[in-house]
Design a protein that fits this description.
This protein is of the alpha/beta class. Helix content is 36%, strand content 27%. It has 12 helices and 18 strands. Strands 5-4-13-14-15-12-16 form a 7-stranded mixed β-sheet, with helices on both faces. Helix 1 runs parallel beside helix 9 and helix 2 packs across helix 9. The protein is globular and about 65 Å long. Its cofactor is FAD. It is an enzyme of class 1 (oxidoreductase).
């Protein structure tokens, strides 16, 4: 059996590693000539950690991950803590700890585990065709590849998705802009082993520790899409949007490097139930593009990869049957994640400011139990509950 995998991002590489674990031949094709991960870092929650453990990267991940022990919310302007609590109950219930990691380092780990020299770069898929010999992928450079099945891990702008669904589905603007990057760890801004978030006005500023004494940071601001803002105006933009916010936020803005900070307009896609068509399957953002508000985009792709590989390995009624079983196991799960993220997005970013202000008030009496239970419920929906 040979699987053609379109995309060498998190989903594509986890799929390739999972399939080769069972002796399935793989060929990975990546559209760009050089991988440049989108976003500075990613929070890998216990469901994703367990998938990477299963794929044989337990120790490597621990070397890359930041050590988060507590979680805290602070008032935007005073900087006073609204709540602070330990992540120990989440770790105890899920059986793993979360690891924030730099995306470039995670990508390098995955490529190294699979074999960078085995990935064919500069191969952008144009179309796919199924026939009695399997599946053929046609690339924009005029070349083609043939296999027994094709897994589309080609992202939120997937070229294969319209083929599977029979239509093009629009992306939905979530209503806010995110700036993210990495900065040297500074305990005058936030504790070194804490996920720290400042909230107010439907905006937030958040910091997570990653390896090598760095913080992953992000700023969120509800804004219309298409503003004429880029790295040349980045620091001034953030100073304007966060004018009057607490001293640690001002210090963070002063310390970031605009040249390595990303500005992203956040979108998702309405969930859809069909993830496969014959011998072609969608995986990762191609199957369930979500906002980052519950930190499950990358973790969901890791879950997809593990479930897909196990369906192909453990069912003997043919490839099409195995892919339908993958769809049956994943469609409901990923719909739930997309909609949970959307709901959290709306509360956090002031879609209805009365609801958001109520959340701020609730944080002042939050002991951590409600937040952690919600996180555990999400985590436990994965394949290694």
């Amino acid at each position: 059996m040979k699987a053609l995998i379109m995309g060498a991002g998190i989903g594509g590489m986890c799929t390739a590693i999972a399939l080769q674990r069972f002796g399935i031949e793989t060929a990975v094709f990546e559209a760009v000539k050089e991988i440049k991960p989108v976003g500075a870092a990613i929070s890998i929650w216990p469901n994703g950690v367990k998938c990477l453990n299963y794929l044989g990267m337990k120790e490597q991940l621990r070397a890359l991950g930041g050590m988060m022990q507590t979680m805290a919310y602070h008032d935007a302007r005073t900087g006073n803590p609204l709540t602070q609590f330990s992540l120990a109950p989440l770790i105890a219930e899920s059986g793993e700890r979360p690891y924030p990691v730099a995306r470039a380092e995670l990508q390098s780990m995955l490529l190294g585990h699979y074999g960078l020299d085995r990935v064919r770069f500069g191969k952008r898929v144009a179309s796919v065709e199924q026939h009695d010999r399997g599946v053929t992928a046609y690339f924009t450079d005029g070349s083609e590849a043939q296999g027994d099945l094709l897994i589309a891990c080609d992202g939120a702008h997937s070229a294969v998705r319209p083929y599977v669904l029979g239509q093009t589905v629009p992306r939905r603007y979530a209503g806010y802009v995110n700036w993210n990057g990495l900065v040297a760890l500074d305990e005058s801004i936030a504790p070194a082993r804490q996920w720290t978030t400042f909230v107010g006005e439907g905006k937030r500023v958040s910091l997570m520790p990653v390896a090598n004494n760095r913080f992953y940071f992000f700023f969120d601001v509800p804004l219309p899409p298409g503003l004429a803002e880029d790295r040349s105006t980045l620091r001034a933009d953030l100073q304007r949007y966060f004018q009057g916010w607490a001293a640690p936020v001002q210090k963070l803005i002063a310390q970031i490097d605009p040249a390595t900070t990303n500005r992203v307009e956040i979108h998702d896609i309405e969930p859809f139930p069909q993830l496969v068509k014959g011998r072609v399957a969608l995986l990762g953002d191609a199957a369930h593009s979500t906002t980052p508000d519950i930190g499950q985009g990358g973790c969901a792709a890791m879950e997809d990869a593990v479930v897909l590989a196990n369906c192909l390995q453990t069912h003997s009624m043919g490839i099409e049957d195995a892919l339908l079983r993958y769809q049956a196991r994943r469609a409901g799960r990923v719909k739930d994640l997309v909609l949970k993220a959307r709901k959290r997005c709306d509360v956090t970013h002031g879609k209805d400011m009365a609801v958001t202000e109520q959340w701020y008030r609730e944080l002042q009496s939050e002991t951590g139990e409600r937040i952690l239970q919600g996180m555990c419920d999400t985590i436990q929906g994965g394949p290694f509950a």
